[in-house]
Amino acid sequence: MTALLSLNDIQGNIVKGYGRFGFPFARYIFYSVRDAAAGRNFVSSLIPLITTSVPWKTKESGGVVKPEAAINIAFTYQGLKNLGLPRESLQSFPDDFAMGMRGRRDILGDDGKSAPENWDPIWNKNTEQVAIFVGINGQTKNAIENAYALIQKKLYEAGEGVLQLAGHTGDGGVNNLPYQDASAVFENGTPTAKEHFGYTDGIGEPFFKGTGENPAYAMGSGKPTGHAPNTPFGWEALEPGEFILGHRDEARELPLAPSPHLLGHNGTFMVYRKLHQNVGSFKKYIQEEAKKHEDKDEEVIAAKFAGRWRSGAPLASFPTKAAADAFMTEVDDAKQKLRKARGTVEEVMAEARYITLLSKLVGFDYTDDLEGGRCPVGAHIRRANPRSALEFGVKGAFNTPGALSNRRRILRRGLPYGNAADKTDTGNHGIIFMVLAASISRQFEFVQQQWINYGNDFKLANEKDPIIGNHHVDKSGKGNGRMIFPARPKTGRSPHFCRHMPRFVETRGGEYFFIPSMTALQMIADGTVDPT
Predict the structure, then answer these.
(1) Residue 143 CB: number of other CB atoms within 10 A?
(2) Cα separation of 201 and 419, whole Å?
(3) Which of 28, 147, 445, 516 gets the most CB atoms within 10 Å of its CB?
(4) Do the bridges between strand 268-277 and strand 186-187 make them parallel or antiparallel, or are there none, so unpaired?
């Protein structure tokens, strides 16, 4: 039996994806630190407000009461320096974190309209450097405002030594907002899991050991084992050290962490990126490409780009929209019945049915589709998590199926921002994309550079991710992005070639942060970090 992590020492946004727990609203606030003592006092005043990963109380089990708003905190390298961390501790952090997102722009492909000079003012025009991130996730807008008011009171008490930074771009070209708001996309007054291109997002979040969750949920979200002994369903949870410092990772080692040990233990790194979505260009390109495709269906083009139908059903398992829609109806029905069965004698059966369906939603691989006839090799989800596809059908290539992917997994957080109802490029809409990982370079940067903005690992030369790749655009507006939909063998269908894709997603700012444990947070606030 796997030992539980110290969930009371781990900040809540690491283990919990708040959006899936009924928190459809968020606000992200950034501060500079002018005076170390004032900064530490501000941090100290926020500690009682911080949400941990301790489970929330339910009818069936103990835990803490679920808050109306969850609050978490993180720091940039400059922030830790300004708060007075010793030089030896600062120098023990990885280079990627110390350099920051701007310093790693070439690796990330942040060029053209994604270049730092085009980012929101907070990221490129402030004389004050971002030091502290505070995130609020709320069940309601009122919960966000109440939590924000409380934090503002703490800021006022800290005095002039801590400054809240403005410079976020909003609607109508306003570019001096004091915070970044985000929200789930609502339909008919109900929050959805969709983003502005219309895809259901956040499927297949990595499942790792020590959280106390049902191990059956590792199917598709953990790592494939090839039906090894004592791994039911052929899947098991990932090692927690892939996401949380101080714990064993998939290499059976401890990930690189800062010193002293308690500074890094139970913490992690966070990548914060504001990504603008060119909804108009995406919609237009899909429409035009559908006219050239033999199915003449925009939904087919959109599904081939993503690797999933917009409903979330994977192409690898459901090659037709009709089959995908029927399956997702079944999934939704099972989810509703499980929700109603919680705490009753029917719960076990309801959960078993839901997990069985969930395994089809996330527990697939590309073993039977190596050529990409159903799900193109260059599709977004196949690039972001190739599963065992990079073995290219070679049996026994690795002792562990998916070994090449297991060390590149990332926890995704964040929410959409803005409203894309106008279906244009010029509006204020996109995704606040946050990644949590034990290693920024090995996990996030590798995926971004090698799998998203390059295609050699997939035998696709320099072909990029169709949706979020940094396609270059000439002065006439014509992009150089391309993608192949391979033909399915023995179907008589022809391959389809997409050309001249423009850039559909543009970076509008961001930074690298360190999320400390509650223990480390207290050490930072007290000024007692001692690397000796």
Answers:
(1) 18
(2) 16
(3) 516
(4) unpaired
The amino acid at residue 158 is A
- Distance, in Å, from the CA atom of 302 to the CA atom of 3, rounded to the nearest integer, reads 42
Q: Provide the pLDDT for residue 27.
A: 98
**Residue closest to 272 by CA, chosen among 13, 22, 11, 95:** 13
3-class secondary structure, 215: helix
Closest CA to 11 of 467, 524, 449: 524
The number of beta carbons lying within 10 Å of the beta carbon of residue 402 is 23
C-beta of residue 28 within 8 angstroms of C-beta of residue 182: yes
Q: How far apart are CA 69 and CA 51, in angstroms?
A: 9
Question: Residue 508 contacts by C-beta under 8 Å, 6 or more apart in sequence?
Answer: 118, 119, 120, 169, 274, 275, 276, 430
Query: Which DSSP category does 422 fall into?
Result: T
CB atoms within 10 A of CB 468: 23
Q: What is the mean pLDDT of each run of 10 residues along the chain (532 residues)?
A: 86 94 97 97 98 84 86 98 97 97 97 96 84 98 98 96 96 92 95 95 90 86 71 80 97 95 98 98 96 95 97 94 95 91 88 86 87 94 89 67 87 95 91 98 97 94 95 89 88 89 97 98 97 88
Q: Are 111 and 105 in contact (CB under 8 A)?
A: yes
**Closest C-alpha to 301, from 313, 287, 314:** 287
Amino acid at 418: G
Q: Which two tokens stand for residue 33?
A: 């630190």
- Taking the C-alpha atoms of residue 322 and residue 319, their distance in angstroms, rounded to an integer, is 9
**Per-residue confidence (pLDDT) for residue 398, from 0 to 100:** 64
What region, left, alpha or beta, does residue 212 occupy, with left being phi > 0 and alpha being psi -120 to 50 degrees? left
Distance separating alpha carbons of residues 430 and 417, to the nearest angstrom = 5
| pTM for the full predicted model | 0.95
| Angstrom distances, CA of residue 411 to CA of 238, 437, 492 | 12, 6, 40
Nearest to 212 by CA among 518, 64, 6: 6
Beta bridge partners of 434: 272, 413
* Distance, CA of 303 to CA of 496 (rounded, Å): 14
User: Residue 331 is encoded by which pair of tokens?
Assistant: 């999934």
Q: CA nearest 471: which of 456, 481, 463?
A: 481
Angle 120-381-217 from CA coordinates, rounded to 5°? 110
pLDDT at 60: 59
Give which of 247, 207, 214, 237 is closest to 9, Cα–Cα.
247
Give residue 311's Cα distance to chain centre.
19
In the numeric block, which tokens belong to residue 316? 């690898």
Q: How many CB atoms lie within 10 A of CB 53?
A: 22
The pair of structure tokens assigned to 424 is: 């244009």
Annotate 439-493 with DSSP letters as a single string: -IIIIIIHIIIIIIS--GGGT-TT---TTTS---B-TTS-B-EEEEEPPPTTS-P
| Token reading at 251 | 């290499």
Dihedral angle, C-alpha 171, 137, 119, 440, nearest 10 °: -160
What are the beta bridge partners of residue 29?
Answer: 134
**Residue 11 DSSP symbol:** B
